[in-house]
Each structure stands twice: as structure tokens, then as C-alpha cells.
């Protein structure tokens, strides 16, 4: 369950956790879920691939040119690993004004103290590949507070506090739902567990593990989960439509994708992703920035242990370069990349020995490919579904939510804004007893005024900016029980990102429709052009949405590329 707090229940989360700390927390929550036997398998499947130097020697491939299409985390991880073996690497990134791909920290001030995230904002303790790089780069972390018992639930025009046992919701909101007698006696947390997790508990450990694996063939349980929507399998638990509607509000990603594949949502249930979480103080963008810093360092020991500078490959990072075509010369066995350089205002092409393509399929759909990739790959590029998502960040000169006792966590509603998320930076004030006198709530703060998916993201996101901001403020006031117009005097600035409207993404994240994992997941990872083009990204990984999937698939693509080099006798 996504009921986690830094200090309100056992065990507490330390800052900068050691690996043993993370394993303890993961084992604890797996035990609570009744699936302790999944711990070892889950951590193994989320671990980084073997070091690339198991497949080649340092500096071995100095004469080989690599193109990496996309400068997000998948591309950066591939480049970081391939550099160890001396490859000559060029990264083509469409974005001009920032780095990181979907990792998007937005700062409201020059001092970079007032910020929040448009992309990943949480790091689960179980995501081994992310922690591999956090530890390598010595980046600090602190708990991301996922749950606040003082946050609000606002459903069907009724308000409750999100207490841990759900009593306030049962008292104030349940009467608005036509629940069965047994459902009325069951808190929403248990209803959610029945709706979402019961199928996992009834399955074999091997089938559960396939939720975060890509394989050519899957077990019958996995196929059942792949081929059916969340709604259909939630109905199969015996819950009423009213109970499903009620409990789904507490998972906006699920509610926005109720009719998409069940397996895509439970990818994050299996490893208990939403139980113990962390963030990087100063912004998640510090991770991709550190990758890019490593490419130009003159002291490789800061990033590459036991490696000499003359063995490292060169990395060129070319921003503002839109890939327009990928083609293959079967005689020279070279891959040709055509791209538009926005800075030079010119269309250029370059030949490479190998390519790692991390372009989301939602954008790759508009890239000319000649000859075409395999039939199933081309179908996946055309058909794999990307869900809509939108976030609206608000800079407030007063932390009104902290005056109401909310430190971190989120409030949930059936209004179009869907959910509100509060910053965790004041979590340091509640490590001991919760004392309102210690909270500097008159400080400015940035919070997520709306985080929604699916139809709500489309419908809210297509309003004019003025009308959208006004609606968001009014809905936040309703959720918090504030007087109408209260926020007009304290909201100083706002910034909105609708990922459907971002030109280089055209969709927030991959989220399979029914049958798509069974049909496409394996063909999506296979290389093309005689093992010259490899693929990486969250959409290629079995772990959609998370930085884990991007980083792990990027590392794996680099390893696979080196093995292809060896196979080609190079």
C-alpha cells in the first residue's frame, strides 16, 4: 500500500540510507504484504546488469562510433557504460533548454531553493539500479513523505482527513457511496488491497515475478493480467462498482487507466514501489546533471573507479538535435542518422557503427525508418499506448497546508485536479513529536496543485491557461475547506506541463492496453539492423514510468551492444 510516512510508524527512514537500510525496509513491507518470498527475486530483477567490463576491455573500442538517440536517463546510462570501453559516442537530444528527458526539476527562483518536479519525484527503496548510480555519484537523499494523516480526501462533495485507519473517510464519505453491508464495514485501505493486490497473492511467486520481466513467453496468470483491464480484474474480486470507484480514487494513475492493462499497474505493486520512498534534495535533475558532468571530467576516479583517462571514450552531447530518419546501409553495415540541428538551422546526417535508440515510441512514430524494423517492432511503435499526465506547480508565499497540519504526502479528490502533493522539505521538523510551533509555515513553498492522468489530464489541460489556473485554485480551496478566492492572494507563480503537448514526448509514459505486454514487450527489446540498433527507455523496460526502468534498460542495451561487437568480430 502507498501508506508511508517518515516518522509516524515503524520503521523510520534514515536520510542517505545504506543498502542494508533499504533491504531492511523492503523486506519489512514485503512481509506486511504477505509476500516475503518475493524479496530476493524482486531485488535480483531490479539489480543493475553486470558491469560492461565483463564483456570487453577498457579502451578496446576506440575506433567504433556510437549514436545515442535521446539524452534522458536511458541514453545517459548507456553512454556512461559504453565510455568505459573507449567507444566514440554522440548523444542526440531534442531538448535545447534543459537536460534529463522526463526528469524535469523546475525552479521558481535563481537560488534554486523553490522547486518541484514535473517528472519523477520519488525513488523507491527497492529500485536497485537507481541506487547503484546514486551511490556511485554520492548524491544525497532524504525521505519523500508519501502519506500524511492530516491530508484530505474530497469525494462526492464530502471531505475527510486521511487517517491511517480510514475512519474519517468511512464516517464522512462512505454514506455517499452505495456500498454493500460488508464494504461499509471495511476501510478503504482494505478495499483497495482486495481490488488490486488479491490477484497477486493468489498467484505463484514465479508468475508475480513476471510483472517486472520481459520474456518471449509468459505464464497463464501473467497472460490473464496482461490481457484484461484493471476494471475487469477488480470486478472479479467481488467488489461492487461503488467500492471500486471509491478505492480507485486513492491511486490517480490507476483511476486514469482503469480500462488499460491490469499488469501495467501492478508492476509497481509487486516490488512495493510506493511504500518507502526518497528524493534528491535540490532536485532530481541532479542525477542527469552528474552523468553529463562525468563525460567532461578530467578526473575519472570521481566516477570511474580503477580506470585511466586514456582508456575512456569521448562523449559529445548535442542538444537541440531532432532525429528525423534512421536508415541502414547493408553493404557498409553502417547506420545513418539524419537530424535537424536547431542551433545551426541545418539538416545533417552522420554514419555510425551502432545506435542505442531511447526515443519514446510516441515520438519515434514520426521518424522515417528505412528499411523498416521488424513487423512487430513497427506495430509496437504505432500501437503501444502512452497515457496522458499533467502537473501544475504552484508557488505559494504561505504554506497554508502546513497550517492545517499537512507535512508532505498527498490529498485525493474526484475533481479534475485528481490529487495535490505537498513538499517533503519540512519533514525534518517532525522527526520527533509533531509540534506545530516548530513549523515555519510562513515560508514560501512549492506544491503540486494538480497531478492527474488520462481523461482528467486531457480535459483540464486543454483549457486556456487563465481558466485552468482559476479552476485549479477553486478546486484546491474546496478540497482544503478554504474560503473561495483565498489562494488568489498567496499564489505568486505557476508552471504547467502537459506531457501530451511536449513536442519531444507526445505522451507521459508507456502504459500497456490489454494484450500489449503479451504481444509487444519482447519484440520491443530486440535489436534491429543485424544487431546494429538497440533500444532502451522506460517503455522498453518491464518497469514502466520509473527511473529504474530507464537506467536498467540503458545499461542492458550497452551490454548487448558490446556482445554484438564481439559477435561481429570487432
TrEMBL record:
GO MF terms, alphabetically ordered: oxidoreductase activity
Q: Which domain of life is it from?
A: Bacteria
> Where is each Amine oxidase domain found?
73-561
Q: Do you know which InterPro entries this protein is assigned to?
A: Amino_oxidase, FAD/NAD-bd_sf, Flavin_monoamine_oxidase
Protein name, as recorded: Amine oxidase
Q: Which organism is it from?
A: Clostridium manihotivorum
Taxonomy of origin reads: Bacteria, Bacillati, Bacillota, Clostridia, Eubacteriales
Amino acid at each position: 500500500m502507498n501508506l508511508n510516512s517518515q516518522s509516524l510508524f515503524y520503521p523510520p527512514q534514515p536520510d542517505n540510507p545504506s543498502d542494508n537500510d533499504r533491504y531492511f525496509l523492503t523486506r519489512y513491507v514485503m512481509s506486511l504484504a504477505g509476500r516475503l518470498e518475493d524479496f530476493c527475486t524482486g531485488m535480483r530483477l531490479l539489480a543493475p546488469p553486470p558491469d560492461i567490463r565483463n564483456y570487453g576491455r577498457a579502451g578496446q573500442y576506440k575506433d567504433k562510433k556510437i549514436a545515442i538517440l535521446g539524452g534522458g536517463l536511458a541514453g545517459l546510462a548507456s553512454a556512461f557504460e559504453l565510455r568505459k570501453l573507449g567507444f566514440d559516442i554522440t548523444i542526440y537530444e531534442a531538448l535545447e533548454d534543459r537536460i534529463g528527458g522526463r526528469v524535469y526539476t523546475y525552479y521558481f527562483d535563481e537560488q534554486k531553493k523553490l522547486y518541484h518536479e514535473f517528472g519523477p519525484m520519488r525513488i523507491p527503496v527497492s529500485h536497485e539500479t537507481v541506487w547503484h548510480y546514486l551511490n556511485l555519484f554520492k548524491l544525497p537523499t532524504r525521505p519523500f513523505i508519501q502519506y500524511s494523516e492530516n491530508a484530505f480526501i474530497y469525494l462526492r462533495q464530502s471531505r475527510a482527513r486521511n487517517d491511517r485507519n480510514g475512519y474519517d473517510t468511512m464516517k464522512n464519505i462512505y454514506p455517499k457511496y452505495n456500498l454493500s453491508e460488508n464494504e461499509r464495514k471495511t476501510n478503504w485501505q482494505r478495499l483497495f488491497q482486495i481490488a488490486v493486490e488479491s490477484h497477486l497473492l493468489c498467484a505463484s511467486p514465479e508468475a508475480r515475478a513476471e510483472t517486472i520481466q520481459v520474456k518471449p513467453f509468459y505464464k497463464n496468470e501473467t497472460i490473464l493480467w496482461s490481457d484484461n483491464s484493471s476494471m475487469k480484474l477488480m470486478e472479479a474480486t467481488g467488489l461492487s462498482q461503488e467500492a471500486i470507484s471509491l478505492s480507485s480514487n486513492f491511486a490517480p494513475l490507476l483511476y486514469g487507466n482503469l480500462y488499460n492493462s491490469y499488469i501495467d499497474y501492478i508492476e509497481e505493486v509487486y516490488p512495493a514501489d510506493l511504500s518507502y520512498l526518497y528524493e534528491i534534495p535540490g532536485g532530481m535533475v541532479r542525477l542527469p546533471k552528474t552523468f553529463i558532468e562525468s563525460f567532461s571530467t578530467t578526473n575519472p576516479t570521481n566516477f570511474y573507479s580503477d580506470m585511466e583517462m586514456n582508456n575512456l571514450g569521448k562523449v559529445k552531447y548535442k542538444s537541440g538535435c531532432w532525429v528525423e530518419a534512421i536508415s541502414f546501409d547493408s553493404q557498409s553495415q553502417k547506420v545513418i542518422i539524419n537530424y535537424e540541428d536547431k542551433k545551426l538551422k541545418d539538416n545533417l546526417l552522420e554514419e555510425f557503427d551502432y545506435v542505442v535508440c531511447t526515443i519514446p515510441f510516441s515520438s519515434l512514430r514520426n521518424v522515417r525508418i528505412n528499411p523498416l524494423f521488424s513487423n512487430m517492432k513497427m506495430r509496437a511503435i504505432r500501437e503501444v499506448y502512452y497515457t496522458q499526465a499533467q502537473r501544475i506547480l504552484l508557488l505559494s508565499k504561505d504554506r497554508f497546508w502546513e497550517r492545517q497540519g499537512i507535512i508532505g504526502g498527498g490529498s485525493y479528490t474526484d475533481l479534475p485536479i485528481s490529487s495535490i502533493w505537498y513538499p517533503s522539505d519540512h519533514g525534518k521538523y517532525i522527526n520527533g513529536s509533531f509540534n506545530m510551533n516548530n513549523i515555519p509555515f510562513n515560508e514560501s513553498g512549492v506544491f503540486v496543485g494538480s497531478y492527474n492522468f488520462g481523461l482528467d489530464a486531457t480535459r483540464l489541460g486543454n483549457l486556456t491557461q487563465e481558466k485552468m489556473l482559476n479552476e485549479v485554485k477553486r478546486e484546491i480551496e474546496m478540497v482544503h475547506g478554504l474560503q473561495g478566492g483565498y489562494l488568489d492572494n498567496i499564489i505568486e507563480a505557476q508552471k504547467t506541463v502537459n506531457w501530451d503537448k511536449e513536442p519531444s514526448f507526445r505522451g507521459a509514459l508507456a502504459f500497456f492496453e490489454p494484450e500489449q505486454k503479451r504481444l509487444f514487450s519482447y519484440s520491443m527489446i530486440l535489436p534491429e539492423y543485424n544487431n546494429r540498433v538497440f533500444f532502451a527507455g522506460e517503455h522498453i523496460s518491464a518497469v514502466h514510468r520509473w527511473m529504474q526502468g530507464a537506467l536498467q534498460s540503458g545499461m542492458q542495451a550497452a551490454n548487448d551492444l558490446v556482445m554484438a561487437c564481439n559477435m561481429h568480430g570487432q
